[in-house]
């Protein structure tokens, strides 16, 4: 995992990943950290004492509101336990492939800069 993350962030992400895999198993195709935490150019403190969030990209075989709600619940549980704000983006495998084929910049950046969890 990324060396520049704090111990608390690493524990939070490990628990997030472990819980997702427990709940969804092979339905989870990919988990990637992206954005400033993946690049290592995040600010440790921002205005008003805020910290940079940790962006995580989740690809599921198929999405549904029920699955997304459970992932958001897991994210909230991690936030409450560790104080680590995980910002998630959830996509189905089909959506992901379509966006890559269309060369959508957001997806190309995640493919290039994203770091597997």
The gist of it:
The protein is α+β, with helices and mostly antiparallel strands. It has a single domain, classed as Beta Polymerase, domain 2 (2-Layer Sandwich), CATH 3.30.460. It has helices at 7-24, 36-39, 65-82, 93-101, 105-113, and strands spanning 28-34, 54-60, 86-92, 115-116.
Structure description:
- The protein has 117 residues and is an alpha+beta fold.
- It has a single domain (7-116), classed as Beta Polymerase, domain 2, CATH 3.30.460.10.
- 50% of the residues lie in helices and 20% in strands.
- It is built from five helices and four strands.
- A four-stranded mixed beta sheet has the order 3-2-1-4, with helices on both faces.
- α3 (65-82) links the parallel β2 and β3 (86-92).
- α1 (7-24) packs antiparallel against α3.
- It is globular and about 35 Å long.
- The termini are close together.
């Amino acid at each position: 995992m990324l060396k520049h993350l704090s111990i608390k962030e690493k524990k939070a992400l490990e628990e997030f990943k472990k819980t997702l895999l427990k709940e969804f198993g092979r339905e989870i195709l990919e988990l990637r950290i992206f954005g400033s935490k993946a690049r290592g150019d995040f600010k440790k403190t921002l205005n008003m004492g805020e910290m940079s969030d940790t962006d995580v990209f989740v690809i599921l075989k198929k999405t549904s509101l029920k699955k997304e709600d459970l992932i958001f619940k897991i994210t909230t549980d991690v936030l409450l336990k560790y104080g680590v704000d995980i910002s998630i983006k959830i996509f189905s495998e089909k959506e992901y492939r379509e966006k890559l084929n269309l060369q959508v910049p957001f997806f190309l950046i995640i493919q290039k800069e994203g770091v597997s969890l």
